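Section 3.1: Structural characterization of target chains.
Under the original work plan, the team committed to producing a structural model for every single-chain target entering the pipeline before any wet-lab resources were allocated. The record below documents one such target. The sequence was received from the expression subgroup and is listed exactly as submitted; it comprises 290 residues.
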Amino acid sequence: MTSRLMTIALVWAALGSAAAAGQSPIDTVHEFYADANYEAALGALDRLDPPAAVPVAIEMDQIRVLCLTALGRASEADAVIERIITADPAFEPGDDIPPRVRAAFDVAQRRVLPRIARELYAEGKAAYDGHAYADAVRTLERSLAVIGRVAEEDEASLTDLRVLGEGFVELSRAAIARDEPPPPPAAPLVATPASAPPEAPREAIPIRQDMPPWKPPAAADRFTSGFSGVIEVDIDETGAVTAARIVDPSYPAYDALLLEAARAWRYEPARRNGQPAKSTRRVGVVLAPR
């Protein structure tokens, strides 16, 4: 008890001296840690106001982890490590972090990152269902980024979540594009005399337009009428697809596969005034029930 009271008195005295000298309180914490006075460093951290900036909070928590580990308080250190990863899933400890603390971060990331990815997906899906498509794109892309950081041996458990996340990102972007105001009408073309009538315009003709296989999931059994939707593709002057978007969703997981397949479709390009031209084509999709 006497030792603890002495530590508290030392902390208060050090913080007061730092304030009088115009020194940052966090510098005092660093000094305690550098002197291996871990209890005093933890006490000083507990007396600082919680910072509003995430990087500052993470810096303080890193020192807290180092002190707790040095004192053998591993379970408390693990809880702080989880807090750091939750605040910044992309966080990586610096090269100056001791190997056993780095190993604890690796173990915590394998435990925490899949949970964060699922929570972000659920938040993004809720935004999509609420027609907040910009929020859905932003949150789902964060979920996909976290999945990309999951250890390779653990990533297989998140494969379905990745496919669904990518699909809803594409659907959200399509909805955003659909809600944008149409471009202003083009200026009228001025006809010029010609010795022969102009060639009639022609739309793009499919050369390869393979649909991905439809494997109805168990949940689709409830829909005896099946599913239908529409995909829209932009085609350049060579007949290659330059962009694809879902205009009318059919089934989320299948829409994601359809967007991927559309990138490989090929067409005989549309023609305008006898020349190959860019065009847009809509393709209907009908998915039969199981």
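The chain has three domains: 2-88, 109-179, 205-287.
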